[in-house]
Amino acid sequence: MTGDQFNERKYKKLRASPLKSSHIIILTMQRCPKESVPEWEEVAAMACGIQNIYLSVTAAGLGGYWSSPKLLMSQIHHHIDLAEGEECYGFFYIGVPMQEIELTIEKKPLEDKVTWYR
After folding, report:
1. Average pLDDT of 9-20?
2. Which CATH class is domain 3-112?
3. Alpha-carbon gap, residue 13 to 111, rounded angstroms
4. Is the pLDDT of residue 18 over 80?
């Protein structure tokens, strides 16, 4: 990116993130050629699979996250062969945490987030 779109901080982070990870999974989805299932269901199923990766990584004592950097997403087709109907949805970075992270999650009551209809 050039001009006003260039962000030095994002550029440095984009270059450094892969080097901090022991593994990077390229997340792609092959759309059903018959389109017998709505696309949103296929994307949701893929996201559920990625959630399982999150859970597995955490259970193994590792860290991980899903990221879709705009620059990499626009250039991925230059680096991997995508089949017709296949799209890249980002990257899942996996690594060993550098330090113990204490999670302090403050949860709101369920009633603040859910509307029940009868």
Report:
1. 76
2. alpha beta
3. 38
4. no
